[in-house]
Structure formats: structure tokens, C-alpha cells
Amino acid sequence: MSLDVTILVAVAALVSFGVVMLYSTTAIFAADRYADELFFVRRQVGAAAVGAVLMVILARVPLSTIWRYSALFLPLAIVLVSLPLVPGLGDSAGGACRWVNIGIGRFQPGEFAKLCTIIFMAGYISRHEQKLSGVGACLAKPMALVGLIAAVFLMHPDFGCAAVTVMVCICM
User: Fold this and answer.
1) Under 8 Å CB-to-CB from 37, ≥6 apart: which residues?
2) Could you say which of 27, 102, 117, 149 has the lowest number of CB atoms within 10 Å?
3) What's the CA gap between 152 and 157, in Å, rounded?
4) pLDDT tens-digit profile of 109-128?
5) pLDDT tens digits, residue range 44-54?
6) Is the pLDDT of residue 61 over 60?
7) 150, 107 Cβ separation under 8 angstroms
8) Which H helix or E strand runs over 155?
């Protein structure tokens, strides 16, 4: 396992900055509503700890394994982005249904779907590198599939996730 120190420092800095910003924007509300000004900060730090553990575990997966199975990440992304639309699973907030309630908590499967889509595109580009001399018909198929995921995001409605997913794939 080789973790890139630059990436680790960048991630730690972003997480730290995010926790500070979260505290500065939620401390008064959390103190009034939950009698604990660190209520949201504790949840965020817990989620960051789970993310750090997952990062260490996933860093041990060889890239060749990820590459070999990258084509399966697109159907997984479609399933994930569709989960909030399933009656009884999806949790609405602010007029949008982006969350899935799994009993012990809620999660936003669209975030995982974005990652799955990026892994799929990276694998596709790697497998078809010789054919990708220019932007054209060779990219029409994968971008149509990315468009399908974006369309499901828009059904939530979640324009932000749709736009980020499409833009990252275009940049790739």
C-alpha cells in the first residue's frame, strides 16, 4: 500500500477546514436545538473517521483489480442513484429526494454514484485509449451512459450532482 502524502495532507486540510466552517455555521443552532454546540461537528468528525478507515482499506486494493471491474461500476452507479426514488427508501428534504434511510442513519447514494461513474469512465478511457484520438463517436456511448445517470439525478431533483458528474466525465 502506498498512500500519497500530498493527497493525504490535502484531504486532511479540506476536512479540517470543513469542520471549522461547519462549527462556525451551526454552533448556535445546535446549542439551541440540541443543547450541544458541537452536535453537528461530532457527527462530521465521526463520518470523517469512517471515511479515513475506508480510505486506508481501499488504498490496499490493487488498481488492476479496480480496472478489471470498472465496467461494473456504471450499473452500480445507476442502482445507487435510483435508490432514493424507491418508495419507502427515499427520504425527502427541502423538496428533493436525495437521501436513503437505512435504519441506523441516512446516506446520500448519489455521492457514491458519482465516484462509481468516475471509476467507470477511467476504466473505459483506459480500455479504449487507442481509439480515443479525438472527441467524437468513440465518446458518444460512455457520455450517453453518463447522461442517463445525470437524468436520474435530475429526477430527484439534484442538479448539482448531475452537473458535477457530467463535468468531471467531460474533463476526463
Assistant:
1) 23, 27, 28, 30, 31
2) 102
3) 8
4) 998 999 999 999 999 888 88
5) 999 999 999 99
6) yes
7) no
8) helix 137-155
